[in-house]
Each structure stands twice: as structure tokens, then as C-alpha cells.
Design brief:
CATH superfamily of the largest domain in chain B: Butyryl-CoA Dehydrogenase, subunit A, domain 3
Strand content of chain B: 5-15%
CATH topology of the largest domain in chain B: Butyryl-CoA Dehydrogenase, subunit A, domain 3
Number of strands of chain A: 13
CATH topology of the largest domain in chain A: Rossmann fold
Largest sheet of chain A: 9 strands, mixed
Largest sheet of chain B: 4 strands, mixed
Number of strands of chain B: 10
Largest interface: A-B, 16 and 14 residues
Number of helices of chain B: 11
Oligomer: heterodimer
Distance between the termini of chain B: 11 Å
Shape of chain B: globular
Order of helices and strands of chain A: EEEEEHEHEHEHEEEEHEHH
Strand order of the largest sheet of chain B: 1-4-5-8
CATH architecture of the largest domain in chain B: Up-down Bundle
Mean pLDDT of chain A: 93
Number of domains of chain B: 3
Low-confidence stretches of chain A: none
């Protein structure tokens, strides 16, 4: 059972978002493994412990990403591949091309990723990778049971559960509830540095300029508007209703 | 010069912080509630359960040699871990550790004392202090008189941590009055069923030491720890180990407290502005941050010296003194920032305030540390402005 895990290093959920000249500042910020990716890592390590095989992490990120990689290796993954994006402006389109290119030629029975990254929240990259590799994908899974050549997967569909049978190899993204990620163990931490970490650059993947060109652009980033204090209506019920209707028409301009 | 932690150290730090946050901090409300009602905050079983959970992750015997199943992580890692443990007031620490002097047990004693303590089956207490001998431990009076192949112990010990819960005590007694601390003090391993009694001493804090009474307690000769007459040296070794662990814990506590103070200052509005915008509050925050920063690096330097086999006694005294005073100042300011709320038992600040006061007293008072530090300088063991 060889499993690939797609991982992203993201902002610590406890960090404050600071906008600096229109972009989110990374200065002095702590980074963590994207929490949804942690579920994916845990599931991969659990499956490895049950069925054997190798767990390989793949991530696109700068040098600082290595801290997240070491943590995942300490949790029990066997090896990792870090692709340095350099200064290349990338969006989900290019990222999935990069990951797919890094995956081609590797042996795998299953690819796991997070349902989405908590920073950008787009939830696209993993599924795009599956499309690139032309394998089936199942998103937002909460249970995974492997059989001979297929798997029974439960996925979260807006609060309901959908049960899917899917043939290997396939890609799945982890939803909250799939498992409870373990802490890195002390022996795991001590061994993490000795596990293989393959370093690639985009140039190593022989992708064309067009394959990397972003299909989207971020035009602006801003804080959500501060919540205004509410307005209390008074008087008889009839008066209140007519006041409300007027306000909705003239001020809120919604009717 | 490089202040960066290794990847392993950072990962350990992060893992322990997460463990404390997710597994131990949830007990905080229970601890406050129980203690308010005069019960132990957390039961021995609950501690054991947490320790086993940590053991499954390999966090066991942080300072215990590998041949005893420990992780033997060294002083720097220990200091970092202790700082993390200090972030909660829940009296939790990782299992698998024994008093450093129990490693002086002979093979037979190891089976009865060292190993059961490491495995959490037996509890020890360290009994040197007497009503008339605290910081001046050299003047202990408890007597041990030889009678056949036994020693007969008579006297009283006081302020003994875990004295009421321990299954055995490491007792320091005078075997040769003439020689006193210079070769006349011996350390005995004394089981509770050999006949000593203990009584709990209520204190200002939640730490409840005990007084121990020895009336003709007969201890077999083979229960001498180390050598006859070499007890005082062992006692000093035991005390030495706590010198940088206490300020490490204090750093963790102070960081958590300062964060509480900052959070509260930003939300509490008086006269139309959050108090965080008042200079009086800002100065308290700044002073606390500066002192925490200083204490942290003093502790880590002491730990670094220990790890590198250097004589860290001077630096450890500085760490113990500065760290304990720092924590008392920080908790006092944070209590002040919280105003009346800080004084209530709804918040843990007053509890920490009471606990922190002990840090300036036990295992070498502020004054003893100052005495050590100044003597080192006056006698020239350490020179002012020595090249680093």
C-alpha cells in the first residue's frame, strides 16, 4: 500500500492576519501543517501501519516548509518531496500541474490530501491533481475502508453522508472527522531528520511556461467590514413594520 | 553565536505545547474547583493516565538514562520541556523520572527504590530540612545511632515535599557528631513501614509539604544510600538539580500569565478606551516581557552549560534567583491588570500568585542564591566581566 500525501504548510490558525501593502504579511508568523492535511497524514500512517508500504509526502513551498515536513515525518511518514516554487507566481492551476508532474513515474495506490487549505480555502489543488493524473477522486471523506482493489468511502455532503465505492488508485481529500491526528512521537522526532527529503525545483519538472501561467489573479485583499451596531425600532407593531419596510427600501436598498 | 534551536528541539517544544494545551489544560477548571473545596486538584490516577498517554508518544523519563527506559534528552531539552509544563498550573510532569541521587543506589537497592520510582510504583521524598536547619542544611540534628546491624533514627524533618504521600524517604541524619556535615552525615532509604510518621502542613499555596517524625526508627545498615558519612554531598547534588528547573517552570507560567494580561487589557474598556491604551498598563506589559526574555535566556544558558559538562552552579543560582523574582513580579502585574477580577478565585491568577511566592523560598531562597553569587565573585571563583 503505497500512499502519497499532498501537504501544504499554512498560517497557524492562532495567528493574526496583517495586511501590508495589499498582501497578507508573513512577517513573524508561525506556520503549521494545514489541519485538513494532518487528517490525510494520519490516515496514510494508519493505513501503512495496517497494510505496510510507504507514505510519501509531497509539498510545494519555500525552505520554511521543511519544518512542516519534519513534523509529518515525525508523525510516521517515510519520506518527502519538496518542490521549491522559487519566485514563480502560481495559482491552483499551476500548482496541480507541478504536483502531478512530480507524481508521474512514482508508484502509488492511493493519494490523500486535505479537503482544503485553511488559508486560501479554495479546495482545488488535490482534485485538479487527480484530474491531471486521470484517476478518480472523492472529496471531503470521513471514513475510508480498503478492500482488495477498491475502497468504500464515506463522504460528507453538506451534513449528509454519501457512501461511494471507488477503484484503486484514487485520490481522496480528508474532512474533519476522518480521524484524530496523532502527536509526533519523541522517537519519531529524533528520526525525522534521517528520513529522505527530496528537493526539487520547478525546472526539474520540465513544465512549459503555459502550464505554469496563473489562470486567476488576486485583485484585492481586505479585512471584512466591521460589524455596525444594530438599529432598534420602537413604537407600535404596525409602526415598526412600516419603519422596517422603509429602511429596507431606502437605506439597505434590498427591496 | 547561534540562538537557533535544532529542528528536534523546536518539534519537541511544539509537541509538548500541544500536548499540554489539548490534554492537560482541560483539567484546569477542575483543579481550581477541587482546590477551592480543599481537595487535591487532580487525582493520582488522572495524572497517571496523562503520563501513560505521554509515554505512548515516548515522553517518559526525560532525564532518565536510556538503560532505565528513559529518553535522556539532556539539559537544554529538559529546560525547554519544563518551560512548556509551566504554562499550566495543573501539577503535571512527565513520568519515568527518579530523584538524581537514587542512581547512587547499589544493585539491590535499585530494585527496591530506583526502579519502582521510575515506573511510578513507589513515591519518594527528600528529607533534609529540619525546624532548625533549612538553608543552613549543615546544621541538621537528626541522629542515627548504630545498634548492631541497624541504625536508630531520632528527630524531625519539616517542609518535605510529598512527605505525606511518599512510600519511602531519603533521610539525612548525623552518624558522626564530631564531623557533622564534613563526613558525619549519612543518607538513609527509610520505608514508611519502618515506622516514621508524617503530617501535612497547610501552606499559603496548594503545595502541601509534610513534617516527618522519627522516634526510634530502626533502619537496616544496607539501607544507607551511597557511603557512610557521604550524605551531605548527595544532598547538595539533589538540591542542585532543581536550581534551573524551577526558573524554567517560572518562565512558562509567566508567559502564559502575560498573555492573559494582554488579552484582558485589550478587551477591558474604562472611560471609553481599552486599558491596553493606557501607559500604566503598557509599561507593565513591557517590563514583564523584558524580564521574561532575560529569564528565559539565563535559564537556557545554565542548561547549555550543564549539557556541555561545564560547572553551571553560578549560572544556575542566577537563574533560580532571577526566574523566581521575575515570575512574582509578572504575576503581580497581571493580577493588577485584571483588577478585582484578578483577585477572585474565578481566575487562576491568584492561585499562581500564591504558588509563585514559594519559588522565592524553596530549594534555596533568594537570599541564599545571592549569597552564593556574591561569594563566587568575592572569592574570585567567578570574575566580573569574564570573557564568554
Amino acid at each position: 500500500m503505497d500512499i502519497l500525501v499532498l501537504m501544504k504548510q499554512t498560517f497557524d490558525t492562532e495567528e493574526k492576519i496583517v495586511l501590508q501593502s495589499g498582501a497578507v504579511s508573513e512577517e513573524g508568523v508561525q506556520f503549521i501543517i494545514n489541519p485538513y492535511d494532518e487528517y490525510a497524514i494520519e490516515e496514510a500512517v494508519k493505513l501503512k501501519e495496517e497494510f505496510g508500504g510507504q507514505v510519501t509526502l509531497l509539498t510545494v513551498g519555500p525552505k520554511r516548509t521543511e519544518e512542516a515536513i519534519r513534523t509529518a515525518l515525525a508523525m510516521g511518514a517515510d519520506q518527502a518531496v519538496r518542490i521549491d516554487p522559487g519566485d514563480e507566481p502560481l495559482d491552483e492551476f499551476g500548482l496541480s500541474k507541478i504536483l502531478a508532474a512530480a507524481i508521474r513515474g512514482r508508484k502509488y495506490d492511493l493519494i490523500l490530501g486535505g479537503n482544503m487549505a485553511i488559508d486560501t480555502g479554495s479546495g482545488q489543488v488535490a482534485l485538479r491533481v487527480a484530474e491531471e493524473l486521470e484517476i478518480p477522486h472523492v472529496s471531503a471523506i470521513t471514513k475510508l475502508t480498503l478492500q482488495e482493489k477498491t475502497a468504500i468511502v464515506e463522504r460528507d455532503v453538506e451534513g449528509d453522508v454519501e457512501v461511494v465505492e471507488v477503484g484503486l488508485p484514487f485520490l481522496a481529500t480528508a474532512q474533519q472527522g476522518l480521524n484524530e491526528p496523532r502527536y509526533p512521537s519523541l522517537p519519531g522526532i529524533m528520526k525525522a531528520k534521517k528520513k529522505p527529503l527530496e528537493q526539487l525545483t520547478i525546472a526539474d519538472l520540465a513544465l512549459s511556461e503555459d502550464e505554469l501561467r496563473p489562470r486567476t489573479t488576486v485583485t484585492a485583499q481586505f479585512y471584512p467590514a466591521k460589524k455596525q451596531a444594530g438599529q432598534l425600532l420602537s413604537g407600535e407593531l404596525n409602526e415598526q413594520v412600516s419603519q422596517l419596510a422603509q429602511l429596507l427600501r431606502n437605506e439597505a436598498k434590498v427591496i | 553565536m547561534d540562538f537557533t534551536l535544532s529542528d528536534e528541539q523546536r518539534m519537541v517544544q511544539r509537541t509538548v505545547r500541544e500536548f499540554i494545551q489539548k490534554e492537560v489544560m482541560p483539567y484546569e477548571q477542575q483543579v481550581l474547583r477541587n482546590e477551592r473545596e480543599g481537595r487535591p486538584g487532580i487525582s493520582r490516577e488522572e495524572i497517571k493516565e496523562l503520563q501513560l498517554k505521554a509515554k505512548a508518544l515516548g515522553f517518559w523519563g526525560i532525564n532518565t538514562p536510556e538503560e532505565y527506559g528513559g529518553a535522556n534528552l539532556g539539559a537544554i531539552m529538559s529546560a525547554l520541556i519544563t518551560m512548556e509544563l509551566g504554562r499550566t498550573f495543573v501539577p503535571f510532569s512527565f513520568g519515568g523520572s527518579a530523584d538524581n541521587i537514587l542512581y547512587y543506589c547499589n544493585e539491590e537497592q535499585k530494585k527496591r527504590y530506583l526502579l519502582p520510582v521510575i515506573n511510578g510504583e513507589r513515591r519518594s521524598c527528600f528529607a533534609i530540612t529540619e525546624p532548625g536547619a533549612g538553608s543552613d542544611a549543615r546544621s541538621i540534628r537528626m541522629s542515627a545511632v548504630k545498634d548492631g546491624d541497624h541504625y536508630v533514627l531520632n528527630g524531625e524533618k519539616i517542609f518535605i515535599t510529598n512527605g505525606n504521600e511518599a512510600d519511602f524517604a531519603m533521610v539525612f541524619a548525623v552518624t558522626d557528631k564530631e564531623k557533622g556535615a564534613n563526613g558525619g552525615v549519612t543518607c538513609f532509604l527509610v520505608d514508611r513501614d519502618m515506622g516514621w510518621r508524617s503530617e501535612y502542613i497547610p501552606t499559603m499555596g496548594e503545595w502541601g509539604p509534610a513534617s516527618l517524625v522519627f522516634e526510634n526508627v530502626r533502619v537496616p545498615e544496607e539501607n544507607i544510600l551511597g557511603e557512610l558519612g557521604k550524605g551531605f554531598e548527595l544532598g547538595m547534588k539533589w538540591i542542585g538539580q532543581g536550581r534551573w528547573a524551577i526558573p524554567a517552570r517560572a518562565v512558562g507560567a509567566a508567559e502564559r500569565l502575560l498573555q492573559m494580561g494582554i488579552d484582558y487589557a485589550k478587551t477591558r474598556v474604562t472611560f471609553g478606551k481599552p486599558i491596553a491604551e493606557r501607559q500604566a498598563i503598557q509599561w507593565m506589559i513591557a517590563d514583564s516581557a523584558v524580564e521574561i526574555e532575560a529569564a528565559k535566556w539565563i535559564v537556557l544558558r545554565a542548561a547549555w552549560m550543564v549539557e556541555n559538562g561545564m560547572d553551571a552552579r553560578h549560572q544556575s543560582s542566577i537563574a533560580k534567583l532571577y526566574g523566581s523574582v521575575m515570575a512574582n513580579q509578572v504575576v503581580d502585574r497581571v493580577l493588577q491588570i485584571h483588577g478585582g477580577m484578578g483577585y477572585t478565585k474565578e481566575l487562576p491568577i491568584e492561585r499562581w500568585y500564591r504558588e509563585a511566592r514559594l519559588w522565592r523560598i524553596f530549594e534555596g531562597t533568594d537570599e541564599i542564591q545571592k549569597r552564593t553569587i556574591s561569594r563566587n565573585l568575592l572569592k574570585g571563583h567567578v570574575k566580573v566581566g569574564e570573557l564568554l
